[in-house]
Design brief:
218 residues, tryptophan biosynthesis, single chain, 10 strands, alpha/beta, TrpF_fam, amino-acid biosynthesis, binds the ligand O=C(O)c1ccccc1NCC(=O)[C@H](O)[C@H](O)COP(=O)(O)O, EC 5.3.1.24, eight-stranded parallel β-barrel
């Protein structure tokens, strides 16, 4: 099975090129004003020029209005919309219908019972993204660099398609893959030198660690 790898919160052409050259399958753009990774729809359109081949663009939004999503879709034309707020199954349905694109719904996980939330979204969202619960006081629902217990994923139905997210980095991705064997992984702050600043050496190091872990598992 091919492992999908999403590098999220990209905001420079250099970081996008590095991520794609290293083997990213997905690149994510954050549309959330409070985030250090925030980009405007117009900036995302410029950055998309760097995205080549089969690499998919992901628009990450938090409880976004139709007006804002209209602008993002008009500018970026993302392949996937990632809903990272408190969107309901009905809202996921609306977004899919209005924009005719797959939706990845994010959930915060800290214990096994947190997976109960996904029930009403099964067959509605195209994919899930399982992220860690934000630390107390964080203004960001994602991009916090914290992990949850990856062993919890072992209890999930095998037909659930998801990306593992939250606090991944070159040092821990080997353990994460070994313990959860996910269909996809997602990383943001683990390849940054400071909040919102992607580091090309850390991106390359992350992919190297992924490839090493895959070779060991083969
Ligand atoms: O990254 C952000 O700033 C962000 C802000 C608001 C909503 C979602 C956000 N990130 C979504 C992602 O998909 C991140 O890659 C994910 O939370 C993992 O981040 P990290 O723990 O830093 O690897």
């Amino acid at each position: 099975m091919t492992l999908d790898i999403k590098i999220c919160g990209l905001s420079t052409p250099e970081a996008i090129r590095t991520a794609i050259d290293a083997g990213a399958s997905h690149v994510g753009f954050i549309f959330f004003a409070k985030s250090p990774r925030n980009v405007t729809p117009a900036r995302a359109r410029e950055l998309k020029i760097e995205v080549s081949g089969a690499v998919k663009t992901v628009a990450v939004v938090v409880d976004a209005s139709d007006e804002f999503l209209d602008e993002i879709v008009a500018e970026l034309a993302p392949d996937i919309i990632q809903l990272h707020g408190k969107e309901t199954p009905e809202r996921v349905r609306q977004v899919k219908a209005r924009y005719q694109r797959p939706v990845m719904k994010a959930f915060s996980i800290s214990e096994a019972s947190d997976f109960d939330q996904i029930g009403p979204f099964r067959g509605v969202a195209d994919r899930f993204l399982f992220d860690a619960k934000p630390p107390k006081g964080s203004e960001l629902p994602g991009g916090n660099g914290v992990s949850f217990d990856w062993r919890l994923l072992a209890a999930l139905d095998r037909d659930i398609d998801y990306m593992l997210s939250g606090g991944l980095n070159a040092a821990n991705i080997g353990d994460a893959l070994r313990l959860s064997n996910p269909p996809g992984i997602d990383i943001s702050s683990g390849v940054e030198s400071a909040p919102g600043i992607k580091d090309t050496a850390l991106i390359e190091e992350f992919f190297k660690a992924v490839r090493t872990a895959q070779a060991l598992a083969a």
